Amino acid sequence: MTRIIIVDDEPQILRALRINLQARGYEIHIAADGAEALSVAASVRPDLVILDLGLPDIDGVDVIRKLRTWTPVPIVVLSGRTDSRDKVAALDAGADDYVTKPFGVDELLARIRAVTRRRAMPGPASARIGDFDIDVANHQVTAPDGTVVHLTPIEWQLVEVFVAEPGKLFSHRQLLHQVWGPTYQSETQYLRQYIAQLRRKFEENPARPRHLITESGMGYRFQP
For 3-120, which CATH class? Predict the structure, then answer.
């Protein structure tokens, strides 16, 4: 059974989520503040954490950082903070996804399923971006008409990051760190340039992408 910790200082949200998630077969543990969340996480070793950022004792971003010192557990932020800086800070600290309050339970359940599925899957040897076949092992892209699409080394690195975790929300800083290295984490123009190049190669309409999606103020998400 999947163990989930719900961390929120609003009793009504804790109660509603506990009822909904337990009804779907999840084992639920709750925490009302950051210190309790860290203690419960160390005790039960959860499979997923649902975390509010506005906690009464420790800011949620600091809770994420503390968890990331010892566990890769998936973390879905569930917060009323809508400022892009808060969202990016949570993602950069190590959150896997971000859901804004008020939220729909169905959306949250879909995010939970997606995050746990990504963590359970090994890196793919092959993938698809729309109608394009991606041979990750041999670094080859085949278009629907059978022609081979050339990718630069940087484009390949971005594709490998995206197809390894479809649906994951990546901040600009995360992508820059993974592809260019820690000294390039503020060079967002590089990232925009290469995302635009990939869209021209993979998207039917690069101006309205269906696969390499911009999440406003946060980063990018890949949808196959």
Answer: alpha beta
CATH class of 126-222: mainly alpha
CA–CA distance from 28 to each of 13, 46, 48, 88, 98 (Å)?
13, 9, 10, 27, 20
Residue ranges covered by each domain of the chain: 3-120, 126-222
Is the pLDDT assigned to residue 17 strictly greater than 90? yes
Residue 153 has pLDDT above 70, yes or no: yes
DSSP letter string over 99-146?
Answer: EESS--HHHHHHHHHHHHHHHHSPPPSEEEETTEEEETTTTEEE-TTS
Q: Strand 148-149 relative to strand 169-171: parallel, antiparallel, unpaired? A: unpaired
User: What tens digit of pLDDT does each residue of 63-112 get?
Assistant: 999 999 999 899 999 999 988 889 999 999 999 999 999 989 999 999 99
